[in-house]
Amino acid sequence: RSSPSGPCRCPMLPRSNLRKRTAPDVEKRGSQDGIDDASPAGPSQHAKEVPTPRAQGKSYGMRTLVGLALLSAIVVLGQLRRLGLPDAFGAKAGPSIMPDMRMQPPSALALAQVSEVIYQRMRERRKAALTETDGIAGIDPFDQVHGRYIWDWFTPDWNCADRERVGPVGDGGYWTCGIDALRRSEGSRCLMYSYGVRDDSRFETEVVRRVGCEVHAFDPTIGGLPPDAAEEPRIRYHKQAVGPKSGHDGNFLIVESILDTMARLGHTWLDILKIDVEASEWSVFEALFAAGKLPFGQVLIELHYADPGAAFGFFEGFERNDFRIFARETNHQPCVAGRLPVAVLYSLVRSPLAPWPPPSSARVAPRPPQGADAAVWMLGRAGRLHELVRTVKGLAAGFFVSWNLRGRYPLYLYAPESDMQRLRTALSPLAVEGGFEIRYRAVEVGEADWPSWEASAGCGGGGVGGPSYWAAELQVRTELAEQFGWLMRIGDDAQLAKPFGYDPFVMMAEVGKSFGVLRGIRPVDEQYPSADCFAELSQAATDFAARAALRPPRGLALGRPATPAKQSKEPELLPLLLGDQLEVSRTSLWRRGSAYAELHAALTDVSGARSASFGDSPLQTLHAALNVPEEQWHIFADVGMVARGGGRQLAAGGLPPPLPRNPMHEGGLLHSGLGAMGANGSNGTNGTNGTGGEYPRQKAAIYVLADGRRLGRLIEMLQSVDRHFNRRFSYPIVVFEEQLLPAQKARLSAATHSPLTFVPVDFRLPAFIGEDQVPEKTGCLPERGLGYRHMCRFQAGIVNMKLSEMGYDWHWRMDDDSMLTGEVSYDVFGYMASKGFRYGFVSTVRDDDACIVGLWDTAKTYAQRARIGLKDNWFTEWPRGNVFYNNFEISHASVFTSPEYRAYFDHIDQNGGIYTRRWGDAPIKSIAVSLFVPPEEVHRFGDIGYRHAPFIDQEPEYLRRPRTPARTAAPLAALPWKTERPLRSVVGRFHIDASADADLQRLLALKASDEPGWIGGDVATSIRLDARAPDGDGQSYMWLFG
């Protein structure tokens, strides 16, 4: 291409020469262009058809474009052959590299072939590197010598041209491949399964709103989706866990494999599978690999550390199924705590070169539903139409619609005949909109016998029905029991707060349950002023059990455990009833001729029934206690409910574990729900008994000091307590707060299913300290302001007194930015009480010397003045500066509210060092423990997973390899501390792992007597040697620092 102004090495013709050609020129061009000179028109005819300059320019431009396209194809073809691939156009290897121009130009398939060559080279490098380590067994996952981390063996070598990170910045976002290409028509929307949502659904909502995918979100640990996702109709929530096979395990009642879920929902292909299931991914995919194929387009997964063998098997399984890694991202959160990152996000895409294509349709007919022989029923009347509308709306949103149960189960509404027309007009449109059927049935109940919210005198209280209501309830149960196999009863004033997330009938049938209720209530706390109201009823039930040869009621099903002598002389009471807001049961319990009908008839003449002193809850409770086997009970501790016009609330939570025993007995799970629906919008107070474990329930509370500027962190802490501890035990949480706004309190209450109590605090300087006496800087790093010093004084001397005044005997401290990281399967309060411990901790650290200037001397002076014998405790053995890390601390009230501690604290407080030298609450309390608590009453919770970045990150015991037995006592009195050379501070600088080294333990065990063993760790791991040690003192220790 030439230009008059540009350099040109070829001669230029005058413009006139472009317009005219001589005959010889035309003859020459004609022969070159394939024009036949022997044509009838002759050469002169061709000369007349010389193109115009514009047409001729277009001809030259077209030739240029064709030439460039040809050149590009040749270059790409040559590159493919150089890489050793067959060319993309089907040409065979030979002397010519010209492609067949009838084929398409290089496409995505050709680029995929290039990526495959690069990927295979990576695999060859991996294979070669394995020869250096003597195979997989010789791999060091944290190889410092070669600078090689376990995840370095699996690199993202596949090229995705339109790779994009979707979701929030940081944790919660994922790398995707070609996400915009997933947008399709409404009838064939893309499909995504997302396992592990927790409280962040921004990735899911962006996928839905951007490309219109249908998303199914699975998480058994939460009560429901976050608000932004809950309002999105294209996101469906399933409260179930994922596993290698369907069924249930020790943690969750509902576990379903991915392939079974797809079959149930009618899905044959997933465009995206996102999975973050806290180390369960290994077994899940092991089962998928064994099944033979992975029907997914791309897999976005967070992997948690496993041994090299599992990691290699995992990625080789994906590669066998034609998946390729196109992105890898490290989760750097552990780095904040000074640890190696053990979780990595991988994104894999199915190669276009895979031999079998995705199906033409990702949907087929869903698997026929199970457990369809069921119905929902309620008693209602037009006088409470407003409450009925709220209840039916809650059923529609939380049951029928949200879990795709449209048309599967009918709703029976029993009401007076005179109210039918009004009820049909108000409720039928709701049923049509929700896709379910309401069947109206008449029932006769006296106007005065309907339950009332207003309190009344005597045993009745509010919320109970009279005799005709009691009889109607029996009529409904027996009538429906002849038609269905399962029934769900819901109160006419109860509204589901969050979707169920599963089919409760199917769940109950699959796990072998017969009777499930929402919670237990204590009559003395609610509508019944005294348990004495049920003395006559309890005696009648006991007599009936004897006549019917039923096992006698025991435990708290009918009252406190009684001795045989007492049981024969006087009836037991009924301090525990079953709440009737929600009940799911097999109809075999209610059919005519059943034990329920017989019990109902036997108790009809009891004066309480005749005088409407109580409703149907006592009868329901007695029947369940007498006739339902222990292993067939279920408590719907995960279901959220709003009742009594919104004044009573029960927050939704994660799936409860399977019950190993009758929940009404001592330690039963039913008691964890006692008082959880307090009056006037509060969440009630602590129950009196029951934990689901072998230890008795205590008067205990978890407490935290809240900062309105850090609500996000506090919510994470509350949810970790819910997930790992309180979903079983439901202990109250006391939130001490300084000027939290009502909206902030509401946000906290909505984020947890634990009972919350808010207690205001007022921080101010004590009278003996003036503001001018408080220095801005003390030399203790990091420097903290006045607010921090207020907090230290509050935690050291005030908070335990306040908790004791509230009636709590046990106090568990958590900080707003600390977390439980593993399942706590037993009641820690009951455990400490049973074992005789009074103080529990997870770790100790060394405080900075600049932060404790004068504190130990002040404490020693007090001990001498108070004539506390230092030989009678372990104060002198406890190294100066070492402190219990009390951001996790469980103590009995007697430790920090006793007269001895109060006098000690007053002495420290009056000194002023909390404000003038920034003495912390941890060293103040640690000194007190060494002075006033015998070492055999101190316990280290080495089995509990706990994190408080950046200082402490203790793995739960079941994640450690190899496992080490938890100690039952802290052997502090036996430690020969030597403090000549104080230890360097480890706070904020090092991560201390206080678990024993198993290999070293085995090594020592070969040479030592039966005595040696790990005795615990504070700032180091200690191993006691036997008496044959060289120094011969009989008490030798090996200390491992670092």
Which structural traits does this protein have?
about 1050 residues; alpha/beta; seven-stranded mixed β-sheet; 30 helices; about 15% strand; disordered N terminus
Characterize the structure shown.
The longest helix has 30 residues, at 53-82. The strands form eleven sheets. A seven-stranded mixed sheet has the order 7-6-5-10-11-13-12, sandwiched between helices. A seven-stranded mixed sheet has the order 16-15-14-17-22-19-23, sandwiched between helices. A seven-stranded mixed sheet has the order 28-27-26-29-34-31-35, sandwiched between helices. It is α/β, with parallel strands linked by helices and 1042 residues long. It is flat. Strand 10 (270-275), helix 9 and strand 11 (296-304) form a beta-alpha-beta unit. Helix 9 (281-291) packs parallel to helix 10 (308-320).
Q: Quick recap of the structure?
A:
With 1042 residues, the chain is of the alpha/beta class.
Layout of strands and helices, then pairs:
Blueprint: H1 15-19, H2 23-32, H3 42-48, H4 53-82, H5 108-132, E1 142-143, E2 148-149, E3 163-166, E4 174-177, E5 191-195, H6 202-211, E6 214-218, H7 227-230, E7 235-238, E8 241-242, E9 255-256, H8 258-265, E10 270-275, H9 281-291, E11 296-304, H10 308-320, E12 323-330, E13 343-350, E14 374-379, H11 385-400, E15 411-415, H12 420-434, E16 438-442, H13 467-481, E17 486-490, E18 494-496, H14 504-510, E19 515-517, E20 520-521, H15 535-547, H16 564-569, E21 577-578, E22 582-586, H17 595-603, H18 607-610, H19 617-627, E23 633-635, E24 641-643, E25 648-650, E26 700-706, H20 711-729, E27 733-737, H21 742-751, E28 756-760, H22 786-797, H23 799-805, E29 810-814, E30 819-820, H24 828-835, E31 839-841, E32 844-846, H25 855-865, E33 882-884, E34 888-892, H26 893-897, H27 899-911, H28 913-916, H29 921-932, E35 938-940, E36 946-948, E37 952-954, H30 998-1005, E38 1013-1017, E39 1021-1024, E40 1037-1040
Parallel strand pairs: 5-6, 5-10, 6-7, 8-9, 10-11, 14-15, 14-17, 15-16, 19-23, 26-27, 26-29, 27-28, 31-35
Antiparallel strand pairs: 1-2, 3-4, 11-13, 12-13, 17-22, 18-24, 19-22, 20-21, 24-25, 29-34, 30-36, 31-34, 32-33, 36-37, 38-39, 39-40
